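#struct-queue
[09:14] JT: dropping the first one here, sequence first, then the structure tokens:
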Amino acid sequence: MFKSAHAKNSNWETAVQSCVKQISGDKLDNFGFLYITEPLSSHLEQVLDAFRQLTGIEHWVGSVGMGICTNNQSNGGEYFDEPAIATMTAQLPNGSFALFSDTVTNDNNGQTVEIATNDFPEGLPFILAHADSANPQILNLVEGLTDTREAFVVGGLTASQKNAHHVCGSVTGGGISGVVFSPHIKIVTSLSQGCLPIGKTHRIDKCDGNLIKELDGRRALDVLLEEAGVTSSGNAQNMAGHIHAALPVTGSDTGDYLVRNLMGVDEGQGIVAIGAPVNDGDVVMFVRRDADAARLDLQNSISSLKRRAGNNVKGGIYISCIARGPNMFGNQNAEINLIRDIIGDIPIVGMFANGEISNSRLYTYTSVLNLFI
């Protein structure tokens, strides 16, 4: 039911033809996923039209990715600053999916995205979404997906030099787009963290927007320096690349948390600025990027997902943070190879994003693996 293909070539036509040759043979396929790298972004519309004509498939979703990844029966890999295409086609039941697109502007706050699911049966739909990270309403866009009907949302924040860099039936962009799958389509999903807590959770006693002033009755900066093992406040600004704030998810039974970047510190007043607004009484902890912990967490999450999926995995979508990949693990293909080692040679495509979406929440430094079963 699922077939994936990939090709690396500066000539987009040659790359498309190579992919079509790899997935050809089943004229019943009616849905396609398409991811391309930035060097081919100016040809996205031509690439999509060629796939539509050569495969006969009308319904496509995807995006330009900061990086893309793929796995199939012969090989696979991760591609970043080179011209590459990753695609996966599938035969899905008629009426089991619906495409949606909302090119929200500043004149529309994007708090509600209309999704046509009236003909779906009772149950929890599954949404794969691509959201433009350059849009100032990005949080409203993501959160607004479930305002019209409850659903489980996964996906990623996209970035490209081209405004129109999403695929949703046609080429679009600037807002949010994707596909909602009927409850009849069985999908299991898991989230893997890329950061390791370095201390306990702390209560925010005093804050202002994204400025944390006091934690547990102490200056916020003093708490951060202590847990990070930094003795000189003059070195505090250098922590931003590997030390981050984390907001625990209320009610999570797995210790889930949302990582947010450190934006800066005020040494005189002991204030820590983070990349998200907070309120008095919220809790926060500090985490650090850790390749070994991220690799172990990814291995455990994939193994757990495989147990949940059983032996009937048909295909998958993988969304990972651009700060992972070789930037975290040191070598290209580390993540897709680990997935292949545990799950096997199943068709998988996906992208490296500027932020990841899981369970309608926006994450960073994580990866999300979704398996069709």
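[09:21] JT: and here's the second one, same format:
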Amino acid sequence: MDIIKKLIVSLIILLILLFGFVIYHAQDSAIVTTEEIITDDEPEQIQRSVDNFLGIIKTFQTDKAHRGAHAKGHACVKAYFDINDDLNPELQQGIFKQSDNSYKAWIRFSNGTPKIAKDAEKDSRGIAIKLLNVIEQGQTQEFLLHNSPAFFSINLDDYNGLIESEDKLKYFLNGYNPFNWRLRELSHVLDTLSPPPYSPIWEEYFSNTAYKFGSHNVKYKIQSCQPFNKTVEQDQTDPDFLRKTLATELANGDACLQFMVQVQNPEKHMPIEDPSVLWKESDSPYISIATITIPQQQFDTAKQQQFCENLSFSPWNSLAEHKPIGALNRVRKVVYQASSLYRHQFNKTAVPKPLDW
């Protein structure tokens, strides 16, 4: 009798998993194309996003206005971005045209939430890279990534609906019809809201959204050059332990990260306009194209922390060869401009210049 009960329970669990799998993939109707698709209501959706984002900033501001996302910065560190010398000619595009080229950079590590929270809380983690003096003096090339390989919204209307919803769980599991549930997006949220890494340099970061790479479309990934090596004791009850761990690591030596691209194969299910669809590595593996070296340094000072807060990053600070594409990128151009303008006006600050070091 016990065996029969166990078999029945196992069968029910299997059916639930199978049903969930069917619903998860039934929601995926993304069109695969090498060109962008712009909907008629995009201007309205972008303005809706700007209003929502500024509303988030105002909700969490105190005597200072923080970023609407990735508000808490752990560090701004100096780094070198060195192009690999063995690139395939097809990947020699934009800043990667000249092998062995090297750029100075600022890198900001951050938590994803719009509030200044304790590092131990489940959250997304981000990395923003500002390459200095690309092509000409003062011009930057910027890359923004976070620690989940896929985004939690399929389009602008979906993203705005999530931001505006008071009950987030109900938004994903709305009504009694499971075919209306947003299971794929919910799974990405749960993947994004993960426990903290040991330190920011040991996290994996992904662009989620797509970018031009010459005539190609790509996504980006950053990961450590070396296997994980715990060298610093830390107190995770400290609200700022990620910053303090990184400060100790960089006081003792350099850090190394790989910068990688995944090239779209239009014959595979790799859509541009739906960043909730994971581009499978089995369809197109990541290729290392640059090495990021964060040299030994002291960054944990009040002056540099303030410098970090005054910086602005945007994927649209970019060469044409690396232009952001897709609706979730197109909205970022306007939202980030509005966010930076509001934040600096409220705080009575300005973007630091010059940026060279």
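[09:30] RK: nice, looked through the second one.
[09:31] RK: Residues 9-26 have pLDDT under 50 and may be disordered.
[09:31] JT: good to know. The chain has one domain: 31-347.
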